[in-house]
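Contributing: when you submit paired examples, paste them exactly as shown. First protein:
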Amino acid sequence: MERRHLLFVGSQIFVGAALALSAGPASASIMPDNNLYLQDCLECESGVSEDTFKAIIEKAKVLYTEVVKQAGGTLTINARWTDATVNASAQQMFGSWSVNMYGGLARRPEVTADGFTMVLCHELGHHLAGFPYVSGWAANEGQSDYFATNHCSQLFWGDETEINAQARAVIAATPKAQCDAAWSTQDAQNLCYRTMLAGKSLGDLLGALKTETVGWDTPATNVVTATNHAHPAAQCRLDTYMAGAVCTADYDKNVIPGKRGTRGYNDREAEEQSALYSCTTQGQYTAGLRSSCWFAPTL
């Protein structure tokens, strides 16, 4: 099955009554505050060079500047190579939609160039992924993770067929089987493999924060009864990256599910719109569902 690439902008989840959302210029980040910056080495070799760091950011600007403009904002991506911070963040204020990317994260040994790309996609997801929301403008952490591998990777790598094909030789059995079941062509499968590997890079980084190990074959077993708007556990986040890679639902880059006017909503209307651009049981999908270790649908 091949997916048509339409392009989407956000929707959120309804938990009992609508979640009270702050409309202010809050910040959202991919990781909790941490002291991993103490391990940074600016002069040391790393998997992501300064040139690669800047090239990935420039590509994101090309792909998403107009998307953000159509949504009513102005995109700014700050490339802070010399900053040792091991994190990434997003803010909105007075029409400026910004993303901050740090060299400290790019230099981590767990982070590949593709993993760094997915971090940037995650931060873009806070602006564009929609329901469920954690503030009046920001998609929550799990939704931003899902956006990264389900939508953003398609735009970043969809036309890089030769590079994508390299992932076929190194992908592990479990993610390979999931990709092969979801996608019918080699090109789509290869993109899925590459996306899975990028997600594993992030899962390893998030695990390192709490000295936890994540794996393809050890999915999270907890099931939430209300959507978790905080940072999910590392294994839960890897599960979400994997789910996004095999979701075959259509998407529209110019739609932010649940966003009405200048803010997003976590009401039923938002969840219903989100269901149009995600894999849900309402769409009769059996794979690629947003992970139940953080997401509790109400439809």
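Second protein:
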Amino acid sequence: MEFRKRVVPASPFRLESHNPGSLDDLTLQPTERRRPGAGEVEIRLHSAALNFRDVLKALGVYPGANPDEVVTFGGDAAGTVVAVGPGVSQFRSGDEVMGFVPVTYSSHVTASARFLSRKPGHLTFDEAVTIPAVFLTAYYALIHLARLQCGERILIHAATGGVGLAAVQLSQRIGAEIFATAGSPEKRDYLRSLGIQHVMDSRSLAFADEVMEITKGSGVNVVLNSLAGEFLTKSLGTLGVCGRFLEIGKRDIYDNRPLGLYPFRNNLAFFAIDLEQAWDVYPDVITGLNEEMMELFARDELRPLPYRVFPVSEVVEAFRYIRQTRQIGKVVISMDCDA
């Protein structure tokens, strides 16, 4: 397929798709800046993280998306505050921030201050955007919901992805025994380089038997799952008594796929996790967890993920790259470079 850079308009701009279904439809469109209202700040964006969810939206297959709407992309971003709205006291113009914004891959965005944090000074903007959604999802799942403890066993699927690598860091910090899967020899070698002893293939159902053999039939205490279909069922079967299943995938849920209850005779817990929904319903809880997590980054006790940077002019190539699931860690779009 022909490689073609996108023309970056004179600021301001944002990435849009008017006809979801083809990545070639992605274009950088001129747009209007919006002055921040109450509780908001305007940010000059420097970096944004690309998620697989964005690829699904661009292809018109994201669950619940409206096919008649112009698709824009929201998520993790980092930049410099250029204007502050009424009622915002925690930020001022010139502050470097990171967090969740309604429109990424843009020159400027106006966002709720509630979803932003100060960027630790020792992190670059590119490093910062590898953190918000993936680490907060992992932190909410492992620390708040599963209460993962030192010495417990955890199975982390797709462990070289963003949430997977964040979960690896948190599990190692806690002192849990990690069982991890990944889809290629290169990715599995990377996990072993992190000191993970039990590494398996995420594209084969053999992982379930391997887990039970290694644990002598007792299974794991926690599963962090993003795989669908029979992989989910097999993963559930690796849980021991009082195990906790953390589901961050969406496919089986939106397909309304049935799940047998027999495994739950062992006092299991199943959590279907949607961070955005949880933040809407329990804002104080999620905000508190985010503050705890950011303190660990400020003290350099947690580290940004590995990443690959694409300039915004090559944003379509970045979408294609992540569609092929080639990345380890995160893919980052830089608004500051166009080479």
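If you have annotations for the second protein, write them as plain sentences, like these:
The mean pLDDT is 93.
Residues 283-298 form the longest helix (16 residues).
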